[in-house]
UniProtKB/TrEMBL annotation:
<protein>
    <submittedName>
        <fullName>AAA family ATPase</fullName>
    </submittedName>
</protein>
<dbReference type="Pfam" id="PF13175">
    <property type="entry name" value="AAA_15"/>
</dbReference>
<dbReference type="InterPro" id="IPR051396">
    <property type="entry name" value="Bact_Antivir_Def_Nuclease"/>
</dbReference>
<feature type="domain" description="Endonuclease GajA/Old nuclease/RecF-like AAA">
    <location>
        <begin position="62"/>
        <end position="142"/>
    </location>
</feature>
<dbReference type="InterPro" id="IPR027417">
    <property type="entry name" value="P-loop_NTPase"/>
</dbReference>
<dbReference type="InterPro" id="IPR041685">
    <property type="entry name" value="AAA_GajA/Old/RecF-like"/>
</dbReference>
Length: 199
């Protein structure tokens, strides 16, 4: 298994982290601390590598003891960081596409919003050739993208939402929903997508 990138299921996360130089690890920790409020610590164990999470309030704790959210978010964060670094610094002509399926699963709503912030910060620089395709059912992610548009951090032209519905004949129908310049969703946003229609 390669260690120069994180595989699609995050199975080589510990090996990827162990392969980073001390300078790369320092940069990653600082970036994670600034972006997420926590950072990763790697410690060699007997026959394995221990991945730990630390923050301002807690010493490093084994990721296996912290619930599924951290182990799910870490490979996503690492892929964004690595591809942000690669596409922005050394090879602006290299196109990178990351596809993510429901990164919000098992995450606190605050971290769902922080993932949206990370995606935008990693894709919105002029030198970045990183693009993200995101499959989600998270109102927290969608609402955060709208807030970032409203704040001027993200342009409505830089994001596209495709909603897949089933038509009367049970065929898939794809509709484009756009954000307005103030971050609100267009009129064709499907009623009841996040809340029941009769609510």
């Amino acid at each position: 298994m390669a260690v120069d990138e994180v595989d699609s299921r995050g199975e080589n996360t510990a090996m990827f982290l162990e392969s980073l130089s001390e300078l790369e690890m320092q940069r990653l920790r600082l970036w994670m601390k600034d972006s997420l409020g926590f950072w990763v610590v790697v410690e060699p164990g007997v026959g394995h590598i221990q991945v730990k999470i630390a923050d301002e309030k807690h010493p490093p704790r084994n990721i296996a003891d912290l619930g599924f959210g951290y182990s799910q978010i870490l490979p996503i964060v690492l892929q964004l960081w690595k591809n942000r670094s690669v596409s922005g610094a050394s090879s602006p002509q290299k196109r990178v596409l990351l596809a993510m399926e429901q990164p919000e699963l098992h995450l606190h709503p605050d971290y769902q919003a922080k993932i949206a912030d990370l995606m935008v910060s990693c894709t919105s620089t002029q030198s970045s050739s990183l693009r993200v395709i995101l499959e989600t059912h998270s109102d927290h992610l969608i609402n955060r993208f709208g807030s970032l548009i409203n704040e001027g951090t993200l342009s409505a032209d830089d994001i596209q939402i495709l909603v897949v519905n089933e038509d009367d004949e049970k065929n898939s129908e794809v509709n484009v929903v756009e954000f307005s310049d103030d971050g609100t969703l267009g009129d064709n946003w499907p009623l009841g997508f996040f809340t029941p229609e009769d609510a």
